[in-house]
Amino acid sequence: MSFSIDSAINYMYQLQKSGVTYSMDGSRTGTDGTADCSGAVYAALRAGGMPSAGWVLNTESMHNWLLANGWQRVADNSDWDAQRGDVFIWGKIGDSAGAGGHTGIFIDHDNIIHCNYAHNGVSINNHDAYWAADGCPYFYAYRYAGAQEADQGDDTDMDLSKLTSLAPVTAYGVAWITNPNGAALWDNTGKVLKRLPYGTSWVVVDVNKGRLNVGGWIDPTDAVVKINKGAAGDWSGTVARVTADDAYTQAQPKPNQAGIQYLPKGSRWKVVGVSKDGNYVNIGGYVDAGKVNIEL
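Structure for Peptidoglycan amidohydrolase family protein, as requested:
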């Protein structure tokens, strides 16, 4: 048996494009215009080449079906390095039937595509933000270990790894609005200030109780987020882009230092680290953090 992760994910995109609505009482797979989380994932994996189980699976029965057909459990309520094609299942085995569980497919390291009640259909969201907003349920993750077909490409497959933006050095990350109706932006009192349009990107300066602060609060289920891992201390692989016309490196991370090397506006530099106060970025010499942004 060969299996195509890309064909499975593309099936989910087709469900989203066709506007299926969420229901646990219809076909559950999208054939009647409705689907639920497990029915959508089961149908998507079938579209990718997985064998029939004889019936539309739920989150309880999906575990054994996956394990019997070339999938490995790579997480049991434990950290793992998620990758495209991983299937997650929330809810402890024995307690995840019906509304007690949830499932979907990773489209990259951070983001998932899933059919859910909150969006009344298929949406793309940051996994960790959505998981936190749902109360951090017990979870499992599975990865296909058998033979895979090569990706033939599909215009409906939105590659979120190609979404790029700039953010201040100390920012939590960047959020792209994925709710077709936009995202409500509210203040600390809960008053809605406006709606942020679909497809726009916003710098996330803080996260609190699962909510994202982008100059006002938004629901993480309305967006997909790229996290600035450097803000948590891991600058490996991070690139800074010069945004000022007068940026220079200097020997020490403090004010009033002599400039050593001129950094042209728009030039890109690998980040080695950031000063303790967050005011200077080390790129082999220190540069004022206010004159560069991090690429996300």
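Residues 163-227 form a domain with the SH3 type barrels. fold (CATH 2.30.30).
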